[in-house]
Amino acid sequence: MVKIGVVGGGQLARMMIPAAINLGVDIAVFSEVEGSSAKLATSHVGDYTNLDELSEFSTDVDVLTFDHEHVPLGLLNALVERGVNVSPPPSALALVQNKIVMRKALTALGLPQPRWAEVTTESELLSAVDSIGGFPCIAKLPVGGYDGKGVRVVAGAGDVTDWLTEGPVLLEEKVGFRRELSQLGARNSSGEWVAWPVVETRQAHGVCSDVIAPAPSLSVTQMANAVAIGEQIAEQVGVIGVLAVELFENAEGQLLVNELAMRPHNSGHVFTELSVTSQFEQHLRSVSNMPLGSTALIAETGIMVNLFGGVDADLSAKVWTKYPEAKIHSYQKQPRSGRKAGHVVVVGLEWVELLETGIAVRDILSERDYDG
Amino acid sequence: MVKIGVVGGGQLARMMIPAAINLGVDIAVFSEVEGSSAKLATSHVGDYTNLDELSEFSTDVDVLTFDHEHVPLGLLNALVERGVNVSPPPSALALVQNKIVMRKALTALGLPQPRWAEVTTESELLSAVDSIGGFPCIAKLPVGGYDGKGVRVVAGAGDVTDWLTEGPVLLEEKVGFRRELSQLGARNSSGEWVAWPVVETRQAHGVCSDVIAPAPSLSVTQMANAVAIGEQIAEQVGVIGVLAVELFENAEGQLLVNELAMRPHNSGHVFTELSVTSQFEQHLRSVSNMPLGSTALIAETGIMVNLFGGVDADLSAKVWTKYPEAKIHSYQKQPRSGRKAGHVVVVGLEWVELLETGIAVRDILSERDYDG
Predict the structure, then answer these.
(1) Residue (of A229, A132, A204, A206) closest to A171 by Cα position
(2) Most buried among A22, A131, B47, B199, by the most CB within 10 A?
(3) Sequence-separated (6 or more) residues with CB below 8 Å from residue B42
């Protein structure tokens, strides 16, 4: 019996548990805290930056995978040296741990992306900005950013002075994009690659708010292009597991790579209900080198909306009385204003109607205020 | 946060775990053995006929429900007296614990069923058999039978002599049925009732082998009739949770009640993939008195085939290479010849093709022999 170890006890690890049960594989979670979202499968609570703890946890599993990308690369390499099957491999994870490493790798692959530059000193800044099209541009901390944190719009020379004292900063062209897309797929260690149709993602305050799947009004060429970008990255970088490629569709309809993730991703939650195989199941299949499942869609279209703050039981009941088709997922997190607390998926025929339903559901669930 | 306690660690408890995770409720399982199918949620291993153990387990949960019907009725009543929320209530469970109690209750409700008689002595036998249409007829032990066990075809007076020394025996008319059906639905304690479309079940050696959903070639009247039978039983008996009504369709197309179950049922596994709401999720919603989920179908039709013996990982890989759309569920039981070890669901447009796929999948998984 395969046993999969997951580092991180957040909602992604949580949602791997149903997939493990359905597949008939064992799962164990290394969580940072007691009572995490993934508490049901948690076998160890500890510090994921401690090699000995991670090593001890790994002795009991066949493969080690992740719910986040925060385990230091040196530590991952040390685990590999100790014989742990780390999937995706550290050489692939290097790209999602450092955005400068990612930009360099994508450049080497010749993939379309925003113009970018690395700066380490204030004196390099102006020529670097000039090389990517001038102000305003985007500055990113290469390490540790997520959900809009560690990202800034830069309007003038002094805007990244504080960051430069800490280390190199990534500058990117501010792309005039029509919208954002996300291409998800998975690759197993036999090299099999299977993709889902590209989705449209909508953000609010720098955080993913809504997803429409498949992305409406894309040409077949664009769809195939998105899949090809995902496949090229997965193969060339040696990804094992789910790969999410966040894309900009620019004003000319060209797709540019924005960000990568090598794990199940918020933009893929919709496939739990919409596709024969969820991203969580596909991730577990990939890292344990099973053949990948069908990514055929079960309905014409589906939408996902994120829920913030908390997911109140009484308000959920109110939702279901009106929308029994709404699949509300609660992550069982301690409620906190603005926190991703769950999501809702609705599938059917027309995305416009489904999204209206999803937003109506979120409005009902937002009647309770978690600011206090 | 609602916490649901489940007595029994079999595959039904196992499959409630993903539903609990998706709904965002806590779940704890009282299992008979270490390493059961539901081990991931098991918080207590013990004896379900021990009142104190059950009582202790119940103090930590908001509602107590079941993966089987073997907890003695007296014990369930004692738990209720101690303030435990037992769902379904013992008054309803009485019908599934004793087939004679069930026949009497269905007679009182005026529901269509095979002619039946209760016999306690050899001397009553011939007149009882006469009253239900003569030999051959069916004899059933009122308590403890399942999957064809405790059921006999009776051809002559001496055929139940041994059983009569143990207690009363239920005799039933041997119905000349076209096929067997199963009507599933759920009722919560607010009295809300939601049904799935009736399914066709096919048996081999007295055990459910295949399910086709919805049952093909039924008239709308028959479908509505099946739902009405389920609803009448659920309401009049006060079922809380999933109710499965096993039905015979006789030569005239009339539906007769064969058996009942008040928990998720093998014939409903297909709805995990086929319906917006699985029977496991619906059961948890019912017993915790949430509004019930939509039972709309996601595809035109679906089939389920049971897997016996074991579910070999290499053979599963072989299946997926050919049929990536097959959803194989392994219950992670110790392999044993003839044991229900898992099931496969395929959904799509034409049940004949889907069933061919399902049977082909089972054939591949049967290449390994668990007799040894």
Answers:
(1) A132
(2) B199
(3) B9, B28, B29, B30, B31, B36
Give the C-alpha separation, B279 to B16, whole Å. 9
Assembly ipTM: 0.93
What number of other Cβ atoms are within 10 A of residue A10's Cβ?
Answer: 19
Segment A264-292 shows an average pLDDT of: 97
> Taking Cα atoms as reference points, which of A9, A57, A8, A65 lies closest to residue A286?
A65
pLDDT digits (tens, 9 = 90+) for B91-115: 999 999 999 999 999 999 999 999 9
All structural domains of chain B, each given as residue ranges with its CATH number in brackets, are 3-86 (3.40.50.20), 115-173 (3.30.1490.20), 177-365 (3.30.470.20)
CB contact, 8 Å: A290 with chain B? Answer: yes
Which positions in chain A touch B321 (Cβ < 8 Å)?
Answer: 291
Give the distance from residue B233's alpha carbon to the nearest chain A alpha carbon, in angstroms: 23
Percent over 70 (pLDDT), chain B: 99
A133: three-class secondary structure by DSSP: coil
Q: At what angle do helices B51-58 and B73-81 cross, to 10 degrees?
A: 40
Band of pLDDT at residue A58, cut at 50, 70 and 90: very high
Q: Which amino acid is at B78?
A: A
pTM recorded for the entire structure: 0.95
d(CA B142, CA B317): 43
Answer whether B320 sits within 8 Å of A291, measured CB to CB: yes
Pairing outcome for strands A3-7 and A63-66: parallel
d(CA A292, CA A277): 9
The pLDDT of residue B136 is 97
For B24, which of A18, A311, A324 is closest by C-beta distance?
Answer: A311
Q: Do B21 and A23 touch (CB under 8 A)?
A: no
Query: What count of CB pairs under 8 Å joins A to B?
Result: 102
CB nearest B298 (choices: A26, A298, A317): A298
The SS3 of residue B226 is helix
What is each CA distance from B238 to A98, B93, B242, in whole angstroms?
A: 60, 10, 12
Assigned token pair, B258: 């064969």
Put simply, the answer to whether B293 touches A317 (Cβ < 8 Å) is: no
Q: Which chain A residues touch B332 with a CB distance below 8 Å? A: 1, 24, 26
